[in-house]
Task: structure prediction
Amino acid sequence: MKKLLFLDFDGVLHSTFSSEELLFNKLGLLVDILQEKPCSIVISSSWRFHHDLTSLKSYLQPISMLIIGTTGDPFVGRFPRYNEIKDYLNKYNPFADWRALDDSFLEFPKSCPELILCHGKTGFSVTQKNTLSFWLNK
Result:
């Protein structure tokens, strides 16, 4: 079964309060895992509304070859990020084994086991790295 990682940027790859110089300062942790055990990446970040796929890939250069696309139009209603992901899965890969790296628990149902929740103030850390690594090695 194909594994898909839905990736948010703000609050994951850098703090939600990061200055321009600190953007993507957590990318190295993610690169470490994905170079060892790669999976396909779909950008679910709201950055997709302001940047085309080529630009998004340029921010994630060491792992850009793993990026296969972005989620689609914004969902209005409860659990928007989750519903955007489900729409993507229904359209392209309904049986995928997936996880979402995100800092916004409000955008997912409370009982969403696929969410790997990051703390927005710190971003991706060793805790999430271990959880992601465990899933990738299953």
About this structure: Helices lie at 27-36, 53-59, 80-92, 126-136. The longest helix spans residues 80-92. Strands lie at 3-7, 40-43, 67-70, 97-102, 115-117. DSSP finds four helices and five strands in the chain.
